[in-house]
Every structure is written in C-alpha cells, then in structure tokens.
Amino acid sequence: MAEEVPAKGSILGKLVPARYVLAILGSIGMAIVYGLKVNLSVAMVAMLNHTAIHMMQEKATTHMISNVSTIAQDAVEECHPPGEVSNVTVKVENGPFSWSEPLQGTLLSCYFWGYLVSQIPLAHVAENFSAKWVMLFSVAINVICTLLTPVFTSAHYGGLIVMRVLEGIGGGASFPAMHVMIASWAPPSERMVMSTIIYVGTSAGTALSILMSGVLSASLGWESIFYVMGALSCIWMALWIILIQDNPNKQRFISPEERHMITSSLGTETKVEHHPKVPWGKVFTSVPFWAILIAHTCNNFGWYMFLIEIPFYMKQVLKFNVASNAALSALPYFPMIIFSIFLGKMLDTLQSKGKISTTAARKTATSICTIIPGICLLILCFIGCRHYEAVSIMSVGIVAMGAMFSGFLSNHIDIAPNFAGTLVALTNTAATLPGIIVPLFVGFVTHGNQNIGAWRIIFGVTIVLFTLEFLVFVIFGSGAEQSWNRSGDQQEIEAKDEKTPLKDNVPMKP
After folding, report:
1. Burial class (CB in 10 A: 0-12, 13-18, 19+), 62
2. By three-state DSSP, how is residue 2 classified?
3. Which of 420, 411, 423, 417 is nearest to 501 (CA)?
4. pTM as predicted
5. Number of alpha carbons in the 13 Å side-chain half-sphere of residue 378
6. Environment class of 216 (CB within 10 Å of its CB; exposed 0-12, middle 13-18, buried 19+)
C-alpha cells in the first residue's frame, strides 16, 4: 500500500466530509451507468416504426393460425389510449426501424452479455489494484459507446449490439468497484446509509434517463438521447479523477480527524501488503452467501421487469404516447430515492441503538422489496384498462423495490467485507441472467399478442420468483460476519456482527 499522504481537509470543508463526497460522486457514477443502460428502453419506443411492425404481425398471423398465442385473443380486454391522441403524435412515434419483438428483446438483452462476463475479473482488479480506476473505466466505456450508438445503429442493428455489449462490459465493473470502495470508506455505523446513498443513484439515473429520453426524442429525435446524455456524463469523469481515492490513507482532501475515525473503526490503521486470497471453497459452501445469490437473482427478474419492460407495457397495452410514457415511467423513481435513503437511515439508527440486529435489518428491507412489489403485480393482473390506477399500482411497486439497497444488495459487506467486491460480482453475475432472459421472455410471450392476457403470464412468473426470494432470504439470510472472511492460517473464529472492524489489525497472509 502507498505511504499515507498528508490530510488537508475535505474540499467542501466540514459541511460535507470526504466519505460523503465519495458517496455523492459514487451515486452520480451509478446514475450514469444505469441511465445509459436504460435509455434504450425509452429510445426504442421512438426508434421503432410501429405501423410497419403491426403490418408484419398481421401478415405473420395469417400464416400461423395454430400459434398458441392467438388462442382466445378476442376474449382478452384491449385497452384504448387515455384521452385523445392527435394524428401528429401518432406520426411522430413512427421511427425508422422495423424490428420484430424477438429482435427487440435481443437488442435490449445483449447489454447483459458483456455484463455477465466482466464482473468477476474486474472485481479481482478492483480488490487487488484500484477500485477507483475500475469505476472510471466503467463509466468511460459507457460514455464512449453511447456517443457512438446512433452512427453504428444507423449502419446496422449489429452495430447497436456491439455497442450494447461493450457498455455491458463496463457496467459490470460498477457494483464490484463500489462495494470495494464502501468496504474501505464506510464506518460500520454508517455502512447502510452510505450504501443506500451510492446505490440509490441507480434509481436517480433511471428516472432522469427515462425523462430526458422522452423529452429529447420528442423534440430533437432519438439520436439526441445518446449524444446529449453521453456528453453530460463526461463532467463526472474529471471530478472522479481529481477528488476520489481508493481509501482514506491515500486521500489528501480529508481531515486528520475523519481519516482516524474511519481507519480506527475499520481496523485499517496498519497497512496490509497483500490482499487475502479468496477462500472459494468456503464461499460456495456458505449458506448466507447462497441466500444472497438467490435473493439477488430472483429480485433482479422483477427489477428488470419494471426497469426495461414497463415502458413497453405502457405503450403496447395501456396505449400511452411517448411523452406520457416517459413521464409516467420515470415518476416512481423520485419517491423511490427518498424512501430508500429514509429506510437506510432508519435501519442504521435502530441498529446503533441496539434495537435490531444487522440480520433483522437486512431481512426487513428484503421483505419490503419482495412482498409489496409482488402484491402490486398481482393487482395489475386484474385491474384491466384503468390507466392511471395501473400507473399508481406500478409506482408503489417500484418505490418499494428501493428497499433492496438496504437489504440483500448490501449484505455482501456484512458477511465478508474483505471479499465484498468478489461476492457482489458472483451474485450479480448470476443476477445478470434475468437481464438477458426478461426481454427475450417478454418478446416471446407478447409476439403478435400485445394485450393484458400475455402480460398476466409475465407478471405471474415474476410473482412466483418474488415469493421464492422472500422465503429463502428470510430463512437462510444472515448479517453476521462469516469466519472465512479472515483468511490465512488462522483458526476459524465465531461469526461476528456488523459492528466488528472490517479487517484484522494484524497483517494477514496472502
């Protein structure tokens, strides 16, 4: 580890300590990664020639009379647009591309091909070399590919696939890098609220991206979505390079008091030359680890359902136009941010007062982000074409999913802070599969069958997975530090609660 640099005080003074400068910039970085990931979901609504696609479907239907998806289609309720839709609006919504539903699913899911393969190797780089530069790489490759997307897409849809896969490779680095940063910077008593501030950026980025995409596509065309959002993201990269370091000992923009408070609470005053090796066998036989992995995977199916597919549900089934679609799709993410931070702070406060354990806090938050969204999807199955009631129900479900940031998504740091980056890479790799499966699954179920009946099947599958997540994590989840977190030749120690230091004060063997 590099020699400790002189501490000159936070760049924002006592008003914002250095650790919260990291949390804020980390949150913005996550917002950029997620914003550039989801912008295609809204942009594609404006990019598609819906009239041509509808004609293609009608022709295909005449040659596929035996297709199961057409059975009893006439008996399913079909929604009409809310209010009046002018001819001009309909005309604007026809873009240049006539992509079928299966191809649309492929274009939306190919991001996760890159995301799937990059997380574990980049987590290793973040833990052993520099999480700061891994996070910078994550944002930079997303920005570059976003700026190039209109050119490559216009040439061939294969070009869009290449750009999305590369963005996915960069995006896969974000969670491992930030988990490593949190493990190095967050005092145990503030770990939950700092994690929430950072990861709630995913919601903020989603909301702003959806809103900006709707406005830009309606006023300047679909290409402007990628040019404007990519250019604005460049500002963050300069701030991250200048203001952020991997740990408090390397940071000059920090007060001596804050540095001592963080390092003493984490047990990192003593420099460790080598990062401990990952005890792979113990990781894969750890019940709490498997509880996180299953919860993460099941929850991501529901998360990507809301994140990627709800704009299509609102367009295809509820018949909202592009502008209304973007505004209503983004609406729930702003209260989600407030709810997430409030819940994280409340659980941290209850923990610090000894009212609840870390395990109880994680299980409470995870229960909220499974039970409430599941109930909301169940209601959606039967609410029919009541447009704004449906939007309200969807909004409640999305807001409740914000509890995941204080639940299983931060649990890796509890059970093994020394390997937080590797653990989140493992669970997030498994949880990437729903990102690939959801668009393909939705495309298959709704192919030539864009009505409420098809979406009831989709929502039903999601409810089953939410139920599985709830049962597994509540029964098997834990917030206690696991004995294998302390690697080397030490004898196994009893699992400790979150309030123990993250690292031993004695240097550990590699």
Report:
1. exposed
2. coil
3. 417
4. 0.75
5. 11
6. buried
Gap between the Cα atoms of 428 and 431, Å rounded: 5
Choose among 233, 212, 230, 228: nearest CA to 46: 212
Which phi and psi angles does 481 have, rounded to 5°?
Answer: -65, 135
Confidence of residue 203 (pLDDT cuts 50, 70, 90): confident
In whole angstroms, give the CA distance from residue 488 to residue 505: 14
Taking the C-alpha atoms of residue 485 and residue 501, their distance in angstroms, rounded to an integer, is 11
153-172 pLDDT, tens per residue? 988 889 999 999 999 999 99
Q: Any alpha helices (H) in 221-306, and if so which ranges?
A: 222-243, 256-266, 280-284, 287-304
Task: Decide: 251 and 5 in contact? Cβ < 8 Å.
Answer: yes
Between 507 and 389, the more confident residue is 389
Residues 6+ apart with CB under 8 A from 66: none
DSSP string, 32-51: HHHHHHHHHHHHHHHHB-HH
**Which of 33-47, 264-278, 465-479 shows the lowest per-residue confidence on average (mean pLDDT)?**
264-278
